[in-house]
């Protein structure tokens, strides 16, 4: 009878849920940042394989914003036909 209780106790202990921790939560690696970085930019010089400006209007808006930051004004309503620029 005692042997059956002991086996039942062992089986019950094995079936308990295990507490799992990710290694990422337990350690810190020197030189690794905690914050996630997000980037956005323009790639130029794509030799005709860039974004189609009718399908991705944010590419032309991004290019206009970048040019204005460089001191070049693009008149409002200008229809830029870009073939070598892509937003990434």
TrEMBL record:
Record keyword Membrane present: no
InterPro entries, sorted: Flag_FlgI
One GO cellular component term: outer membrane-bounded periplasmic space
UniProt-listed GO biological process terms: bacterial-type flagellum-dependent cell motility
Signal peptide annotation: 1-20
Domain of life: Bacteria
Subcellular location(s) of the protein: Bacterial flagellum basal body
Predominant subcellular localization, coarse grouping: other
One Pfam family cited in the UniProt record for this chain: FlgI
Gene Ontology molecular function, alphabetical: structural molecule activity
Keywords: Bacterial flagellum, Cell projection, Cilium, Flagellum, Signal
Membership in a protein family: Belongs to the FlgI family.
Function, as annotated: Assembles around the rod to form the L-ring and probably protects the motor/basal body from shearing forces during rotation.
Assembly mode: The basal body constitutes a major portion of the flagellar organelle and consists of four rings (L,P,S, and M) mounted on a central rod.
Protein name as catalogued: Flagellar basal body P-ring protein FlgI
UniProt organism field: Serratia marcescens
């Amino acid at each position: 009878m005692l042997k059956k209780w002991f086996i039942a106790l062992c089986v019950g202990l094995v079936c308990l849920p295990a507490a799992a921790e990710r290694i990422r939560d337990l350690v810190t690696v020197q030189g690794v940042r905690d914050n996630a970085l997000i980037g956005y930019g323009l790639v130029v010089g794509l030799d005709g394989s860039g974004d189609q400006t009718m399908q991705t209007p944010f590419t032309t808006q991004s290019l206009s914003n970048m040019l204005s930051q460089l001191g070049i004004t693009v008149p409002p309503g200008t229809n830029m036909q870009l073939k070598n620029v892509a937003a990434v």
